[in-house]
């Protein structure tokens, strides 16, 4: 996926797939003895996603008109942003109108190749570290567009991902 | 009554990029006559004017147009979706400035800024933008704008 | 009609085995080898395939260099070594990748060359669902992967028609 509109250079998608896998392996394999260290690792991944999300927000919203309110921003994330990054739109968006939004993606692209024979609970545990980076990206995009929030993710095997966004009143 | 020299060429005198907290990230003076401090002061006023303009009218476009004119300087503003304000101050001449042209200049500056943000070596917490490619990009835009002005003979 | 499928990695271990013989009543094949466990069968197959491949290499090289036919550049028939062998009851096809993976398929004797099919299995099923699966860590493990299994099954079924 290329975001360089001027040059039209393109990068093979597999490159990103492999780097993403190794990224998570790197953070998960080095000395994950205590739970505290594990949390530190996942927060580092999330921080990387956060910075990426901020740059993406700048580049992807450059051509559009200004957003009117928070719901407009969330809709942008669900449609344009999701299509650019994950090649499809979010399948379901729910909100309680009090600052919480739930995004459901029924076929999360980055997980489409993941599979194992272990049971559902084990699968969930194995897949969860791979969600820190996307959560960070979403948080980065929203924060750069003016919405401070926390993002939590959950996965329903095989491919369904649910992202819960809770806005923080500043 | 003294005759002031009629300026026949519009040119960009200053480009300023203001961050989300109204912190000046980048201010560069391209004119030889005006003092830099004056531009800082003008950029500051522009922030207030931009905020007033947004709240007053339901303006959806990023380009905010002409904010105000002071002596021979015209101040134009642009607000991105990420709440970054770009201010361009022109030394005006008798040639009218078209909105489309200003919009294009702002889009180019925004593109240079997006490139800066995407640079992994850019520190978002730094107070000033010191990246040489960013400065070169802005210089390039300033040098190539308003080339087509006609000087009356 | 594809009978079974073996996948060996470069450490000579069988990392995947699949069998479609029982789906169709074929008495010639079912009777003899059912009592042998699949791991032993895989080792035997590997031995046969390894020896045949080395034999072909030694026979087809000239002064130690694999022989290439002197045709136009676009039509160079690369010496790809051992491809398949046929007996009265089955035909075995072999495909080896540059990374040392060996794909072996046994089919009925009338099937034509299955090199392209094996290449497709490698490219579209193995690379996509095994290499790109972050949960498959070491390349010495047996492939315990429902997606891979299902995709391979679907693909073979579609080819057998």
Low-confidence stretches of chain C: 25-32, 71-77
- What CATH first level of chain B would be assigned? Alpha Beta
Mean pLDDT of chain C: 80
- What is the element string of chain C, with H for helices and E for strands? EEHHEEEEEHH
- Secondary-structure-based class of chain C equals alpha+beta
What CATH calls the topology of chain C is Beta-Lactamase
Strand runs of chain B, count: 5
CATH class of chain C: Alpha Beta
**Using CB atoms under 8 Å apart, which protein chain pair has the greatest interface?**
A-B, 17 and 17 residues
Q: Beta-sheet strand percentage of chain B?
A: 15-25%
Q: Note the gap between the termini of chain B.
A: 24 Å
How many structural domains does the protein architecture of chain C include?
Answer: 1
Shape of chain C: globular
State the helical fraction of chain B.
Answer: 25-40%
Whole-number average pLDDT of chain B? 81
Work out the radius of gyration of chain C.
17 Å
Number of strands of chain C: 7
Number of helices of chain C: 4
Organism (chain B): Anaeromyces robustus
Protein name (chain B): Trafficking protein particle complex subunit 2-like protein
Pfam families (chain B): Sedlin_N
GO biological process, one term (chain B): endoplasmic reticulum to Golgi vesicle-mediated transport
Topology:
The complex is a heterotrimer of chains A (170), B (153) and C (161).
Chain A: H1 13-29, H2 35-60, H3 70-86, E1 92-95, E2 100-105, H4 120-127, H5 132-144, E3 149-156, E4 160-167
Antiparallel strand pairs in A: 1-2, 2-4, 3-4
Chain B: E1 11-18, E2 24-29, H1 36-56, E3 63-70, E4 73-79, E5 85-91, H2 99-118, H3 132-144
Antiparallel strand pairs in B: 1-2, 1-5, 3-4, 4-5
Chain C: E1 2-8, E2 14-19, H1 27-33, H2 38-60, E3 61-62, E4 65-66, E5 84-86, E6 91-96, E7 102-107, H3 115-131, H4 146-159
Antiparallel strand pairs in C: 1-2, 1-7, 3-4, 5-6, 6-7
Could you explain how this protein is built, in words?
Chain B: This is Trafficking protein particle complex subunit 2-like protein. Chain B: Belongs to the TRAPP small subunits family. Sedlin subfamily. Chain B: InterPro entries: Longin-like_dom_sf (IPR011012), Sedlin (IPR006722), TRAPPC2L (IPR044760). Chain C: One of its GO terms (cellular component) is Golgi apparatus. The complex is a heterotrimer of chains A (170), B (153) and C (161). Chain A has 170 residues and is an alpha+beta fold. In chain A, 48% of the residues lie in helices and 15% in strands. Chain A has one domain (13-167): Trafficking protein particle complex subunit 3 (Muramoyl-pentapeptide Carboxypeptidase, domain 2, 2-Layer Sandwich). In chain A, strands 1-2-4-3 form a 4-stranded antiparallel beta sheet. The model of chain A has no long low-confidence stretch (mean pLDDT 82). Chain B has one domain (11-144): Beta-Lactamase. Chain B has 153 residues and is α+β, with helices and mostly antiparallel strands. Chain C is 38% helix and 20% strand. In chain C, helix 3 packs antiparallel against helix 4 (146-159). Chain A binds chain C through residues 14, 17-18, 21, 24-25, 113-117, 126-127, 130, 158, and chain C through 128-129, 132-137, 144-148.
């Amino acid at each position: 996926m290329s975001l360089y509109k001027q040059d039209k250079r393109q990068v093979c998608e597999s490159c990103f797939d492999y780097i993403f896998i190794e990224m998570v392996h790197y953070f998960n394999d080095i000395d994950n003895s205590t739970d505290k260290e594990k949390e530190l690792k996942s927060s580092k991944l999330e921080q990387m996603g956060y910075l990426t999300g901020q740059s993406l927000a700048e580049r992807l919203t450059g051509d559009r008109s200004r957003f009117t309110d928070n719901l407009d921003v969330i809709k942008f994330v669900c449609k344009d942003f999701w299509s650019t990054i994950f090649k499809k739109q979010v399948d379901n968006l729910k909100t309680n109108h009090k600052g919480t939004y739930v995004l459901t993606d029924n076929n999360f692209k980055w997980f489409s190749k993941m599979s194992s024979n272990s049971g559902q609970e084990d699968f969930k545990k194995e897949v969860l570290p791979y969600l820190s980076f996307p959560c960070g990206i979403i948080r980065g995009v929203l924060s750069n567009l003016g919405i401070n929030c926390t993002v939590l993710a959950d996965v329903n095997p095989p491919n369904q991902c649910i992202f819960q966004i809770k806005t923080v009143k500043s | 009554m003294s005759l002031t020299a009629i300026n026949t060429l519009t040119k960009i005198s200053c480009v300023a990029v203001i961050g989300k907290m109204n912190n000046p990230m980048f201010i560069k003076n391209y004119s030889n006559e005006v003092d830099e401090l004056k531009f800082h002061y003008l950029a500051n006023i522009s922030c207030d004017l931009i905020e007033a303009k947004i709240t007053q009218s339901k303006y959806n476009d990023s380009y905010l147009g002409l904010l105000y004119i002071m002596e021979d300087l015209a101040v134009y503003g642009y607000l991105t979706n990420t709440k970054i304000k770009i201010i361009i101050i022109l030394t005006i001449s008798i040639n009218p400035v078209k909105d489309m042209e200003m919009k294009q200049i702002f889009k180019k500056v925004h593109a240079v800024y997006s490139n800066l943000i995407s640079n992994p070596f850019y520190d978002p917490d730094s107070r000033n933008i010191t990246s040489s490619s960013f400065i070169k990009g802005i210089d390039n835009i300033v040098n190539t704008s308003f080339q087509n002005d006609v000087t009356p003979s | 009609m594809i009978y079974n499928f073996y996948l060996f990695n470069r450490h000579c271990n069988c990392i995947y085995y699949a069998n479609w013989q029982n789906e169709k009543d074929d008495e010639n094949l079912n009777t003899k080898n059912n009592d042998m466990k699949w791991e032993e069968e895989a080792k035997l197959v590997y031995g046969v395939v390894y020896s045949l491949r080395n034999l072909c290499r030694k026979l087809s090289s000239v002064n130690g260099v694999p022989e290439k036919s002197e045709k136009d550049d676009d039509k160079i028939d690369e010496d790809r070594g051992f491809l398949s062998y046929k007996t009265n009851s089955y035909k075995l096809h072999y495909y080896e990748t540059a990374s040392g993976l060996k794909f072996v398929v046994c089919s009925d004797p009338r099937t034509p060359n299955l090199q392209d099919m094996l290449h497709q299995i490698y490219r579209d099923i193995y690379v996509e669902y095994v290499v790109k699966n972050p949960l498959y860590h070491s390349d010495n493990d047996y492939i315990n992967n429902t997606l891979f299994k299902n995709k391979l099954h679907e693909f073979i079924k579609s080819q057998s028609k």
